[in-house]
Amino acid sequence: MPEFSPGLEGVVAAETAVSEVDGANGRLIYRGGYLIEDLAPIATFEESAYLLWNGRLPEAADLDALCRQMAAARGLKDAGRGSLVALDPATDAMDTLRTVVSAQGAAKTLTQPTLDEAIALTAVLPTIVAAAYRRSKGNDPIEPRDDLRHAANLLWMMEGKEASPDRVHWLDTYLVLLADHGLNASTFTARVIASTGSDLTSCIVGAIGALKGPAHGGATFAARTMLDKIGSVENVEPWMEKAHEEHRRFAGFGHRVYRTYDPRAKILRELAKTAAPDLHRLAARAEEVALKILHEAHPERPNATNVDFWASVVLTGVGIPKELFTCVFASSRVAGWTAHVLESLADLRIIRPASIWKGPQPGSKPLPIAQR
Amino acid sequence: MVAARTEISLVDGANGRLVYRGYVIADLAEDMSFEEVAHLLWYGRLPTRAELDALTLELAGSRTLTTSAMTALAAMPKDADPMDVLRSVVSVQGVEHRLEKPTIPLAIHATASFPTILAAYHRIQQGLEPVKTRADLAHAANYLYTLNGKESPPELVRALNTYLVLLADHGMNASTFTARVIASTDSDLVSCLVGAIGALKGPAHGGAPSAVIDQLDQIGTADNAERWLRDARRRKVKFMGFGHRVYRVYDPRARILKAMCERMNPKFYALASKVEEIALQILHEEHPERPQSTNVEFYSAGVLQAIGLPKQYFTPTFAVSRAAGWTAHVLEQVANNRIIRPQSEYIGPEPRKPVPLAERG
């Protein structure tokens, strides 16, 4: 009997060239061998997505073509639009995203995932996110603009006016940083679904469902909620000490893989200084106190701030309401999900793990109902 | 790779046994209703009469779609794969539960909605009004009633019930595993089910029974079987309905379905049993070392056809059954949870510096 590792910790489930999380050294490597801290300052979300899909950074003409293709794929089809308006406007934005992506992808025949489909799916997510947001506020959705890039267009569709270049830049940087991250739970979900020969929409719909979990993509929301509850720099220490005494977990700390500071968190922490100076002060103090408390409690554990903590501050600076954090995360990670699915097609083998039986041994016959 | 500990079902491939909560499938298939088996999977034991009545009532009371779900259903393209419709409408039907922790009542609620969604879409596809569900009918009977707009003969209801019992769970298959991975992030039950439906859709998993029919149609007659199969093999065409990762002997579900198929669908059986014989012979000649056997999908196709289901509804009907197992596994996962986040092995280039856009090319 092979060994069982709860949560598959340390179990290798796939080979990948899309990204590598080098937890021991605190490095995130994107396809092609680029460290995230080298890539983020020079590449936009579209360039990063191109890299994840194609294995190389685009030249100017490649990038133009990709941006045009994405801009043309932003509209909703009838089924997508129909499912959107069927939902109560108060529906959780991730539920809306899961539903509309599913309906948008409803097709007569099953097709193998393609790069064109990956591009179209990536392009359409912000349209759904912004529409969910507008509807929740009692406003009509705003049509996408094909002259704007991924980040700028999302803010346009949310607000109906062009966002400042700074806000666009912060959002774009966030989207670059979150676009892929090894075999996390949602990416793994997408790869398991792909392994059955299913279609790309099914893979992405499953991944959205996994990302929705508070232990995964929902953590950014939780981090911001914690900062809201703390409220002020002065309240940081008493609040966190009380929380620790009550065995409540600090949101935004700890990671299965990193043993040092998450390189994405480092970049976002720096960005947060200009993107959200007030919240940055509060968050910096909260981080300091949290790490001190965690270190005192468990000096042996490598406790570090994770990406969700600082992402919540930067997204706040961008002007994204916290109810949309997980959806905006999805609008970035969809590039990675689709890249992983496309990669897995090259050597498709159904992922059907084993399980250990801990139920009763067969032998007893079921009793007829009258005798139970 | 071992992905979980479970006490829901055991696929004992070496001995050709499928065990639900300690009972071998052959002992459950003949006499149990789908409701009894769902109770077994969810609660870990067979229901008493009172418990069964309560569950039957609760399932029947949860069949109606929400207004949002009906509106979304009506907006689906009329020629879509019913699996895509199921995936989309299950997603809508559950939105009111938000991020509630999965529970048995939520499992019942979701399981009850699957047949309603499929039957309503089937009616819409034919230009007919969806039929109101009947609380006095059990799961299998009500499904056929809402599909066809009239009650089906008892032997067809019984056959569908047996199919639903046989397929309700099967260890850590890809769709069940998908549901558990999603559950492991503390996501909601609907997200788990929607992911599982997407996985079941794949031809390597639940998407093959209609392909069995297609292949048999191409073969046409028993006399043509040998020639067709040998020729197909030369063209590297895969035989549909054969082989399984886990079973090393005849799949116990396939055995039961084969007997049902012989009884219910003699025309299909005459061709299928001949094709089975020759296919197994050819596979054995090619790989004598491999244990080749007929899988559950091969004779499922004949049974579902005899029940009167259109072939696009074979895989969705598989989902109607497996919903019980998926939800049971989600409940087991959340009861003792740890996020499922495996490692990957990086096979890309070692770190190097990226070149800015202006300097590329």
Question: Taking all residues together, what is the mean pLDDT of chain A?
Answer: 94
- The count of helical stretches of chain B stands at 16
In round numbers, the mean pLDDT of chain B is 94
- Spatial sequence of strands, sheet with the most strands of chain B: 2-3-4
Low-confidence stretches of chain A: none
The CATH first-level class of the largest domain in chain B comes to: Mainly Alpha
Specify the structural class of chain A.
mainly alpha
Taking the sheet with the most strands of chain A, its summary is: 3 strands, antiparallel
Number of strands of chain A: 5
Percent strand of chain B: 5-15%
Number of strands of chain B: 5
CATH topology of the largest domain in chain B: Citrate Synthase, domain 1
Helix content of chain A: 40-55%
Major sheet summary line of chain B = 3 strands, antiparallel
Structural class of chain B: mainly alpha
The CATH superfamily label of the largest domain in chain B reads Citrate Synthase, domain 1
Share of β-strand residues of chain A: 5-15%
Shape of chain B: globular
CATH architecture of the largest domain in chain B: Orthogonal Bundle
Oligomeric state of this protein: heterodimer
Structural notes for this entry:
The complex is a heterodimer of chains A (372) and B (361). Helix content of chain A is 55%, strand content 5%. Chain A is mainly α and 372 residues long. In chain A, α2 packs parallel to α8, α5 (93-104) crosses α6 and α5 packs antiparallel against α10. The longest helix of chain A has 22 residues, at 115-136. The mean pLDDT of chain A is 94. Chain B has 361 residues and is mainly alpha-helical. Chain B has two domains: 9-203 and 312-335, Citrate Synthase, domain 1 (Orthogonal Bundle), CATH 1.10.580; 209-306, Cytochrome P450-Terp, domain 2 (Cytochrome p450-Terp, domain 2, Orthogonal Bundle), CATH 1.10.230. A three-stranded antiparallel sheet of chain B has the order 2-3-4. The radius of gyration of chain B is 22 Å and the shape is globular.
